[in-house]
Each structure stands twice: as C-alpha cells, then as structure tokens.
Design brief:
Blueprint lengths: L7 H10 L4 H19 L2 E4 L1 H17 L12 E5 L26 H8 L3 E6 L33 H8 L5 E6 L5 H7 L2 E4 L19 E6 L2 H11 L28 E4 L1 H4 L6 H16 L3 E4 L8 H17 L17 H12 L2 H13 L5 H22 L5 E5 L14 H5 L6 H6 L2 E9 L6 E8 L4 H15 L6 H4 L6
Parallel strand pairs: 2-3, 2-4, 7-8, 7-9
Antiparallel strand pairs: 1-3, 4-6, 5-6, 5-10, 9-11, 10-11
Helix pairs in contact: 2-3, 5-6, 10-12, 10-13
C-alpha cells in the first residue's frame, strides 16, 4: 500500500512498527505532489522544508520512545487552504491582491495541526477570498476534479478536497461560509466536516463572513476527520467566538445508529433542481440507515427557503466590511504611478480583486448604504433568527438530519456561468451556516447517471457534532471509506 492511500491509523501503526520513517512519508508525499499536481493544480505553494523538519521531529520522538506523547496527527501529511496564515508562507486567498503577501504569524487552526504532529505539505487553491462554488474564480488557475479533470472540484475549498481525492495529502483543512467544505467534499467524493460555529478558532483565517465562517477537515474516512477535529477544537483566547469543546469526536463512532432518530426534510427532497440521481442516492442512504436500526422522522424547516436570500445579504455585507482592509496602503497589491491616495486606492482595488470579489464588494456596499440597510440587512438578520429557531425545533424531534449536499454532481468547467445559478449550488448548505449548526458531507457512492461521487449531508444540533459523525461512521460501514480517485489510484506504484 502506498502512503497516498493510507489513513491515519495505518500511517501511525507503520511508524510505531518501524516499517518506514516520517521522513519517508514526507519525501514520498512531496514527490507525489510534484508528479501529480500538474494535472490537478491543488497546491499554490509546497512547503518541503517545513514538512521535512516536522518529519524529523516525529522520527526523533520515535527514537526517544515518546511517539505516543505526540498529537493525534503525528506523521500525517496535511495541507491548508490558502486563506490560513502560516508563518513564512504566502497566504494569497487565490487573489492578485495578496499575491506577494507572506504571513508574519500562524493561524491557530494551522498551529494546532502542527502541534498535533502533522507534516505540513503546503497551501491549497481556492476561489478568490472564498467567493465561489467551483474554484474557477482563483487568480492562479482552476483546480481540476480528480474524478474527471474536465469538471470542477467545487468550492471555495476546491484545492483542499482535490488534494485528498488525488492522494496528495491524508488530511487537509478548508473553510466553510455557506457550503465551501461540504460541497467540494461531495463533488470530490471525500469526507468533509464543517463543525458547529465556535468549535474551531478562526484566528488567522482571512475572513469572508465573520458570523458564518468555520474551519474544518477533509479526509478519506470518518475517523481521520474526527481525529483532526480532536486536534483543532477548543477555546482560543485569540478568538472570542471560539468555545470550550472538551469532547473526543471518535468516542461514539462504533455505536451504530440503533435507536437514533434521523430527520428527513421533505422540502429538500422535493426541491427544484435536485437531480434524480442525487435524490435516489439520498433515499437509498436513508433506507440503509433505517435498516440499521434508525428511525426516520419527517421534519419541517419552514424558513429554510429564505436562507439563500438572507445569505446573499449577510455574506456580501460582511465581505464588504472585511475586505475594506485591503486598501493598498499597508499591504496587498498597490497600483503604481499614482500621485494621490484616492486614485491609488481605486485602481489598486479594481485591479487587485477579481470579478466575483468586486461583485460582492459592490453588493455589500449597496446593501449597507443609507436607505437600503433597513430594508434588507435587518430583515435578513430576522430571517436568521427564524431559521435558527427552525433547527432548534427540528432537533427536539431528531438526533441528526439527512439531506442532499448539492443539487447535482460535479459540473464541467464553464457549464455554469450565470452567478445566480452558481449560487444555487449551495441551496442545501447555506441554512446550516446561518443557524451555526454542524454539517458534513459523507460520500455515498456514485451517481447512477454521471458515475460521479454523490454526498449525503448530515446535520447535527449545535455542539453535538458527534451525532453526525456517528451516523457518518454507520454509513461508512455500508459504503466503505472514500477511495483515492480511480485515475490517480492507478498511478500508485509503491511508496
């Protein structure tokens, strides 16, 4: 078995047994990235020296007999979405605005992965400033879906999903504002978790929508994702929204779903645009859970239909505020040849930001303007409260909700060019960010029409993310762990 398809348990068992060293893992992973990534374009920067340095620390711990004192990711190849600061690396957010920016510090989520013994391979491609659902808005080229290089990997964390699906990393981190972890996880056929808002610190993650953003892991099996959450979660004094979270996310993975109540939302299953292959796959997964001992319960989310409208008020407003810091004065792209601050500011932002970023900045500026603010922003916040209350009521009846992640499987590059149609890719995921609940993608096989990965979305009550991981583990026992995409698995020729 090659390192590219190993899970965390296999890697660490091999290290303990002396079958290979952490340095071998790092070197093999870096060689695979060099060989494979020309096809996928998942990596924007490879941190070979940092990976080898971390590997040397793991090997030293093994030699000293202290390997078990390292964290849950000891010796595991990891990589980070390029909106997460890591000291000494470029953090570009896939934008010309930050093309030459080098991080002077490390984000808490990145540091916790490093403290847990992860081997940092590099920074991953994304939609510019996380604005998109296909990774087509990146200023540094699109990332390809390893299952079909003519199709998008999803977004905005497309590079994070593709790196795991192509076997270039065991675990990656992404961020999710309206579905940006779960949707690419579904398109690329990997486990992808957006925990409850506040479970993971956002300090050092370049913000899109501060009340919506959350960091989470991609992996090829549920246990690896849960182990990564163990490393990531918990209170951070540098992020006032982070919460204490003293839980072992792996504790109930083997309990099965006997006696659990699984919610089904009829409005989601009857939504316009939901393809028949996705609907049938979700229905089949529900039937398998019922056969495994769960009880299916229909629940209503009466205000979920308004989630898209609320999100595209709240998101652009917060994005407009957050992106105002890129003013060409302190850091970021500065257009040359200007003799007054106003023209420099305007030209730098016009050229530094791509079309989708400019679109959202202009929308946010309009929505927060005098005379418009009261008409849109306040009602959107009221809708947010109603959606949150809907989920609270639903979770009085069920332990977890099963729903689609995306209306369809991965689409071809250029196939969805209308912004509004693109936004509908997140129709099933947005309400979870608005309410702050945990949600994840669990691969449930291939679509009967396209032959591409289909994902089931599992939604948990706030700070009960273990519920959805337990259900995901039960589904994994039926469907199996996520494989490396076939075209890339065929390339494996040993370590």
């Amino acid at each position: 078995m090659s390192f590219s398809s190993m899970n965390i348990a296999e890697i660490q068992a091999g290290l303990r047994a002396g079958e290979f060293s952490a340095r071998e893992i790092a070197d093999s992973s870096l060689e695979r990235i060099e060989r494979v990534d020309a096809q996928v374009n998942a990596f924007l920067e490879v941190t070979a020296d940092a990976a080898r340095e971390a590997a040397s620390a793991v090997d030293a711990a093994i030699a000293a007999g202290t390997f078990d004192e390292l964290g849950p990711l000891a010796g595991v190849p990891v990589a980070f979405k390029d909106n997460m600061n890591q000291l000494g690396t470029h953090t570009t957010c896939s934008s010309r605005m930050l093309e030459n920016y080098v991080s002077p510090y490390t984000a808490t989520c990145v540091q916790r992965v490093l403290d847990a013994g992860g081997l940092p391979l590099g920074k991953l491609n994304m939609d510019e400033f996380a604005f998109g659902s296909s990774t087509e808005t990146s200023a540094f080229g699109t990332t390809k879906n390893p299952w079909d290089l003519q199709r998008v990997p999803g977004g905005s964390s497309g590079g994070s999903a593709a790196a795991v699906a192509a076997g270039m990393a065991c675990v990656t981190l992404g961020s999710d504002t309206g579905g940006s972890i779960r949707q690419p996880g579904s398109f690329c056929g990997v486990v992808a978790v957006k925990p409850t808002y506040g479970v993971v610190s956002r300090y050092g993650v370049v913000a899109f929508g501060s009340s919506l953003d959350q960091v989470g892991p991609f992996a090829r099996n549920v246990r690896d994702a849960a182990l990564t959450l163990n490393a990531l979660s918990g209170r951070d004094p540098l992020d006032c929204t982070s919460q204490e979270c003293a839980i072992d996310f792996t504790a109930n993975l083997d309990q099965g779903v006997q006696g659990m109540r699984i919610g089904i939302v009829p409005a989601f299953m009857q939504a316009q645009g939901l393809t028949s292959e996705v609907r049938s796959a979700i229905e089949a997964a529900a039937a398998k859970l019922e056969a495994a001992g769960a009880t299916l319960v229909e629940v209503e989310l009466p205000n979920a239909a308004a989630a898209m409208s609320a999100y595209y008020v709240l998101g652009p407003c917060e994005a407009f505020s957050n992106l105002s810091r890129f003013d060409s004065v302190r850091y970021g792209y500065r257009d040359p040849g200007h003799h007054d601050l106003g023209s420099q500011y305007e030209a730098s932002r016009a050229k530094g930001f791509g079309p989708e970023a400019r679109r959202r900045i202009m929308l946010g500026s309009y929505l927060l303007s005098s005379g418009v603010y009261d008409k849109y922003y306040y009602p959107a916040q009221q809708v947010r409260t109603l959606i949150t209350q809907d989920y609270t009521r639903a979770f009085e009846q069920v332990d977890c909700i099963l729903a689609p992640v995306s209306p369809r499987t991965a689409f071809k590059f250029g196939e969805v060019s209308d912004p509004t149609t693109m936004y509908l890719s997140d129709i099933f995921t947005i309400s979870i960010n608005i309410a702050g609940n945990g949600g994840m993608n669990m691969p449930i096989g291939l679509g009967e029409d396209t032959g591409l990965p289909v994902g089931a979305q599992l939604i948990a009550p706030a700070f009960h993310d273990a519920n959805m991981l337990r259900v995901a583990s039960a589904l994994e026992s039926i469907y199996g762990p996520a494989p490396v995409a076939p075209a890339f698995a065929e390339e494996e020729g040993g370590r």
